[in-house]
């Protein structure tokens, strides 16, 4: 049944496809899906099922969904898991980040602050259609203001690496961090909290000529500053790459250092390397050749950083408003959502400019992309 849905999806997508402007000759992006609600992050299972979060910025009823056609979806893993219930935390409350592993388990980060439950990482096995495991992320691993929202799956070292941008309720990005969870023991650590590499820089997010602001503590407009957001890892599981959304620097750290519990916070910070310049960006992905792909939220574009460590625009499209989650698929494409966060009413004097349909694009990367990263 799922395979049938997938084939229908792929065939019908060609009807909706439209080319986006490419900065590189033959590189094009297609509109793969047009949906009624904002899409946050995207994951692909090994059998090419497309699983996605509805962006939590808009408080969706269906937190996580499975694409059933280029214009339709169904709750994932089911309706019950998308429905908050008293007396249990066995539901998805507030989700942005998710990834699938090589075994078909979709790992979903539940930030938990919508109905005030403990943040957790939920694994759902798409092959058995059963819960695989839950890893809880309580205080002090998460803090007031935590917003853990992107993930890397490191099967080689049996770890998860989660970016916490620290802009949830009560957060201002100053305690952004990386959370490391051991797959076997479930033990979690919070590292690089408040580090120069995870906290936002004091630069505005400017879209269509306007800075995105929120009311400050004094009631006056204050620019949004978002901490550690995009995170990915190379194919050899040697380097983790990460960056605050608000900032001009992309960083990396050796996986061995990130997992070395003997290092003090100061020693670990000293192992972080500034890798390259970048614009304000959300999502981050990588291919087998080591090229990094960044969703440039201000310019409706996808950027790339290659071996020369220099950023350049890869492709753009005027309807790619706030490109967000980006991931590879078994079909050889990379997929990216356009969540339209910057068009929301709170950024436009109460007048919403976001509108349906919400788009998922796909494009050919320079080399095969790494699905779980």
Task: Describe this entry's structure for a reader.
It holds the Pfam family MRJP. InterPro entries: 6-blade_b-propeller_TolB-like, MRJP/yellow-related. Its main location: secreted. It is found in: Secreted. It comes from Bradyrhizobium iriomotense. The protein has 3 helices and 29 strands. The N terminus is likely disordered. A hairpin with a 4-residue loop joins β7 and β8. The relative contact order is 0.15. The radius of gyration is 19 Å and the shape is globular. It has 373 residues and is mostly beta strands. The longest helix has 15 residues. It has a single domain, classed as Neuraminidase (6 Propeller). It has a 5-stranded antiparallel sheet, with no helix packed on it.
Question: Could you provide a short overview of the structure?
Answer:
7% of the residues lie in helices and 40% in strands. It is mostly beta strands. It has a single domain (2-363), classed as Neuraminidase, CATH 2.120.10.30.
């Amino acid at each position: 049944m799922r395979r049938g849905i997938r084939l229908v999806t792929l065939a019908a997508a060609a009807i909706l496809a439209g080319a986006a402007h490419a900065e590189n000759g033959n590189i094009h992006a297609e509109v793969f899906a047009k949906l009624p609600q904002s899409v946050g992050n995207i994951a692909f299972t090994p059998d090419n099922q497309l699983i996605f979060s509805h962006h939590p910025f808009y408080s969706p009823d269906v937190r996580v969904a499975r694409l059933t056609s280029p214009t339709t979806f169904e709750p994932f893993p089911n309706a019950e898991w998308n429905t908050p219930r008293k007396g249990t935390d066995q539901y998805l409350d507030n989700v942005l980040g998710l990834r699938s592993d090589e075994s078909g388990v979709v790992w979903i980060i539940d930030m938990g602050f919508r109905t005030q439950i403990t943040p957790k990482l939920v694994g759902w096995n798409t092959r058995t259609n059963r819960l695989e495991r839950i890893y809880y992320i309580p205080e002090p691993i998460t803090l007031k203001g935590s917003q853990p929202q992107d993930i890397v799956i490191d099967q080689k070292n049996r770890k998860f690496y989660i970016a916490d941008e620290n802009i949830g309720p009560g957060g201002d990005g100053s305690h952004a961090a990386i959370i490391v969870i051991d797959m076997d023991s479930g033990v979690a650590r919070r590292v690089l909290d408040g580090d120069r590499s995870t906290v936002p820089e004091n630069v505005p997010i400017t879209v269509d000529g306007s800075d995105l602001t929120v009311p400050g503590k004094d009631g006056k407009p204050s620019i949004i500053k978002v901490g550690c957001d995009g995170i990915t890892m190379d194919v050899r599981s040697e380097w983790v790459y990460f960056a605050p959304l608000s900032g001009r620097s992309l960083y990396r750290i050796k996986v061995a250092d990130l997992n070395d519990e003997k290092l003090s916070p100061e020693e670990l910070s000293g192992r972080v390397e500034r890798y390259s310049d970048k614009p304000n960006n959300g999502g981050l992905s990588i291919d087998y050749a080591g090229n990094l792909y960044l969703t440039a939220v201000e310019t409706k574009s996808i950027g790339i950083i290659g071996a020369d460590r220099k950023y350049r625009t890869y492709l753009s499209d005027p309807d790619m408003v706030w490109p967000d989650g980006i991931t590879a698929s078994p079909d050889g494409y990379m997929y990216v959502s356009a969540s339209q966060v910057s068009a929301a009413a709170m950024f436009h004097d109460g007048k919403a400019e976001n509108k349906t349909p919400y788009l998922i694009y796909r494009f050919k990367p320079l080399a095969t992309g790494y699905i779980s990263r």
